Amino acid sequence: MTSHSDLTLRFAEPTDCDVLFKLIKALADYEKLSHAVTGNPTALKEHLFGSPSYVEAILAEYTGQAVGFALFFHNYSTFLTKPGIYLEDLFVLPEYRRHGIGKALLIKLAQIAVERGCGRLEWSVLDWNEPAIAFYRRMGATILDDWRICRVTEEALIELGGRE
């Protein structure tokens, strides 16, 4: 377990975008999806801190070094008639795992959700990522096997948006 005095969780600031983007690329590498990273730190900064802002990020620093992050945004539950938080990515560098950093990030997000009156905190996990699935279950998450993610991107998105 990491010493709590050595771990800092804080909202990302504009000057953090380069290091945050490096962590995003490390996540993509871990998930064998490096080829899918087409963004850049400049776009990330605009989406985190522009007007409007689309996402928020919590940076995890261990002894002053950025070692993980959680990137999230609000969604809405029509059934609960409450906002929620969707966790887009939670990542801790492999050499810093099993020290309570991921747990601390998830707890911080739960605290933010409660403070903001949210009805739920949710995210997706790759079906092959058994360590993450086991971790999330230990944290109290339910894995929804009967729901599937639907996604429209690139040319298909343009085509759909152009329909009458």
Secondary-structure-based class equals alpha+beta
- CATH architectural type: 3-Layer(aba) Sandwich
Main sheet: which strands, in order across?
1-2-3-4-5
**Largest sheet geometry:** 5 strands, mixed
For the record, what is the CATH homologous superfamily label?
Gcn5-related N-acetyltransferase (GNAT)
List segments where confidence is low: pLDDT < 50 over at least 5 consecutive residues: none
Determine the mean pLDDT. 95
Count of β-strands: 5
Strand content: 15-25%
What does this structure look like?
Helices cover 34% and strands 24% of the residues. The mean pLDDT is 95. By secondary structure, the protein is an alpha+beta fold. It has a single domain, classed as Aminopeptidase (3-Layer(aba) Sandwich). It has helices spanning 17-30, 41-49, 101-115, 130-138, 154-161, and strands at residues 7-11, 56-62, 65-77, 82-92, 120-123. It is built from five helices and five strands, in the order βααβββαβαα. β3 and β4 (82-92) form a beta hairpin. The chain has a five-stranded mixed beta sheet, with helices on both faces. The termini are far apart.
Brief description of this entry?
This protein has 164 residues and is α+β, with helices and mostly antiparallel strands. It has helices at 17-30, 41-49, 101-115, 130-138, 154-161, and strands spanning 7-11, 56-62, 65-77, 82-92, 120-123.
Q: How does the SSE layout of this entry go?
A:
Blueprint: E1 7-11, H1 17-30, H2 41-49, E2 56-62, E3 65-77, E4 82-92, H3 101-115, E5 120-123, H4 130-138, H5 154-161
Helix pairs in contact: 1-2
